[in-house]
Specification:
Strand content: 25-35%
Radius of gyration: 18 Å
Order of helices and strands: EEEHEEHEHHHEHEHEEHHEE
CATH topology: Rossmann fold
Number of strands: 12
Number of domains: 1
Helix content: 25-40%
Structural class: alpha/beta
Largest sheet: 6 strands, mixed
CATH architecture: 3-Layer(aba) Sandwich
Distance between the termini: 39 Å
Length: about 250
């Protein structure tokens, strides 16, 4: 397995936010992390990239316990795209994406052709090459999100974690970004709210409720009408899509 979470727990103050979570993501596959607001999705992603430390349990990347991986090595290996990221520094789009190369370069390293190619390719992948010289602060929310995804891609990670990456994106770019991630061949975990998008683009799904995994497996096994009613409190009909064969949810109210 490329990512393995084994009985991991984490508390914020007196509240247990992640409660004994166990999940695995095979190498090169995409896992969609689902659940209502406050279910622990963002906290779990931060635990996996060691922005927070688990109180118990083990998180492995391949055969390595993340607690034993040096910070510099972890930064080269794992890319994390947060829901919102901002800065007061005057940076161009290219400057932001160049930051993705930082883990691969020493303090005195010169900018290389490999670095430049990684940045250009990442900008092309998110359709932002023509905005290279534009100030990041002048972009729309959706455009900023695409730039941050480009930064992550320029990092050339082995594992990619994305927290609600389609927030603020129009439907075309939602589809483009998730289609891109699904084709990268990078082990990825994507926290999503849109269950139909998760079913379309993720190989496996895991559903969190109050910090616990309540269902995990392929989309057609996880997205059942009973689960939607119990966890998300919605009445819905689930059918195989005639377009892609995966589950499609019709909300009934």
């Amino acid at each position: 397995m490329s990512i393995a979470v084994e009985n991991v727990s984490f508390s914020a103050g007196s509240r247990l936010v992640v409660d004994g979570v166990t999940l695995t993501v095979p190498k090169g596959k995409v896992l969609g992390l689902l659940g209502p607001n406050g279910s622990g999705k963002s906290s779990l992603l931060r635990l996996i990239c060691r922005l927070r430390r688990a109180e118990s349990g083990v998180i492995r990347l391949g055969d390595d316990d993340i607690a034993s991986i040096p910070r510099a090595a972890l930064s080269r290996r794992v890319a994390f795209v947060e829901q919102q990221a901002t800065t007061d520094t005057q940076l161009t789009v290219r400057d932001v994406v160049r930051l993705g190369r930082t883990p691969h370069r020493g303090l005195l390293s010169s900018w290389t052709a490999e670095d430049e190619a990684a940045v250009c390719q990442a900008l092309d992948r998110v359709d932002m090459r023509e905005r290279t010289g534009q100030l990041w602060q002048t972009l729309s929310g959706g455009e900023r999100q695409r730039v941050h995804i480009a930064r992550a891609l320029a990092q050339a990670p082995a594992e990619l974690l994305l927290d609600e990456p389609t927030n603020h994106l129009d439907i075309q770019h939602q589809l483009d970004i998730l289609s891109l991630v699904s084709r990268l061949g990078i082990t990825s975990i994507i926290a999503l709210h849109d269950l139909n998008l998760a079913a379309m683009f993720c190989d496996q799904l895991a559903v969190l409720r109050e910090g616990r995994i309540v269902a995990a497996g392929p989309p057609d096994a996880v997205l059942t009408e009973d689960l939607l009613k119990e966890v998300f409190r919605v009445q819905a009909k689930v059918e195989a899509s005639p377009h892609h064969g995966r589950p499609h949810i019709h909300y009934l109210g």
